[in-house]
Amino acid sequence: MTTPAIHDPLLGYADWLDAIARDERVLVTVERPDPTCAVLRLDDPDNHNALSGPLTLQLQQALGALCADARLASIVLTGTGDFFSVGGDWQMMQERAHSYAERPEGTTGLWRWIRRQFGGIARQITGTEKIVIAAVNGHAAGVALAWALNCDLVFAAEEARLATAFARIGLVPEIGTNWALTRRLGYARAMELVLAGGTLDGREAAARGLVNAALPRAELMDHALEWCRRIAKLPEHVPAMTKPLLRSAADASFEQTLLAEEYAEPNTFTTRAHQETVRALLAKQERASDGR
Predict the structure, then answer these.
(1) Could you please report the per-residue DSSP string of 87-135?
(2) Higher confidence at residue 3 or residue 268?
(3) d(Cα 41, Cα 59) in Å, to the nearest integer?
(4) Which of 110-119, 200-209, 274-283 has the lowest mean pLDDT?
(5) Torsion sign over Cα 220, 214, 36, 124
(6) How far apart are the C-alpha atoms of 212 and 4, rounded to whole Å?
(7) Can you tell me whether residue 7 is helix, strand or coil?
(8) Is 231 strand, coil or helix?
(9) Angstrom distance (rounded) from CA 124 to CA 105
(10) Helices (H), 234-253
């Protein structure tokens, strides 16, 4: 059961973290369709998968375990029910963010939570060698939208609503949203979306390039899992090495990108997958030249 201490606004960061860790509800679930793929699901549909303290901590712990699993090639992040996640938990915001003046640590406790938990999950998504796929099944807002946009592939249900309403509630884009929006949309279009407090459905988001594709909700998970199967068929090192190369290229000069690729490519030549492919291609060429 939830302990009353969770709702004590005067608890410092460390004590509050201990309190939410004792919450016995299961708010995040993990499914394993096969040994190479995991589905990580925000599972508090009665609260629209809002990012309460316990849900966020469980997500961070589950994601950490999956990132450490050497068998996995891909992880699908999605939500239960009609919502991906409405984003921040309003009660938690009021209890924790709005009462900072009453705690000796001031805003630094809030900073720790945002950096270590909200930002920590974003770093897990972007830093792991696994390919992380967002399957945005419904409404997505705030930090949850940031996590989705920081994934390597993003697929959305056509009826999903992606809300960038930061300005309407007196906030600014957070947890990597500025990075993701400007790279996917460009500066001017990102600014327009943020200042307008825009909400895009899945089709609009796909048309603008904010997500990779929009699909009927009934087909969304099958599509995400099909990508998991595609990734699993690749030589193990290819997605693992490609991910950091592509992510660093967005902020690197041409010369820096070229240098990273020059160090990476020689390693791939030594892999069995590459060598077997070359032998097969040479054999095919030889048969063609012999008219066979």
Answers:
(1) -B-HHHIIIIITTGGGSTTTTHHHHHHIIIIIHHHHHHHHHSSSEEEEE
(2) 268
(3) 9
(4) 274-283
(5) negative
(6) 42
(7) helix
(8) helix
(9) 27
(10) 237-249
Look at residue 99 in the predicted model and tell me its pLDDT. Answer: 62
Tokens of 126: 């972007």
Dihedral (C-alpha) 44, 136, 221, 130: value to the nearest 10 degrees? Answer: -100
**Which is nearest to 136 in space by CA: 208, 82, 58?**
82
Is 1's pLDDT higher than 60? no
User: Rounded to a whole number, what is the distance in angstroms from the first to the last CA of the chain?
Assistant: 72
Question: For residue 50, what is the enclosing H or E element?
Answer: none
The neighbouring-strand residues paired with 41 are 29, 78
Order the strands of the 199-201 sheet from edge to edge.
83-85, 139-141, 161-163, 199-201
Q: Which of 237, 216, 10, 213 lies closest to 101, judged by CA? A: 10
Give the pair of three-digit tokens for residue 16. 């509050």
Domain boundaries in the chain? 4-233, 237-289
Amino acid at 107: T
Q: Tell me if 11 sits within 8 A of 19, measured CB to CB.
A: yes
Determine how β-strand 139-141 pairs with β-strand 28-34.
Answer: unpaired
Homologous superfamily of 4-233: 2-enoyl-CoA Hydratase; Chain A, domain 1 (3.90.226.10)
Q: Would you call 292 exposed, middle or buried from its count of C-beta atoms within 10 A (0-12, 13-18, 19+)? A: exposed
pLDDT higher than 90, residue 218:
yes
Q: Running DSSP on this structure, what letter comes out for residue 46? A: G
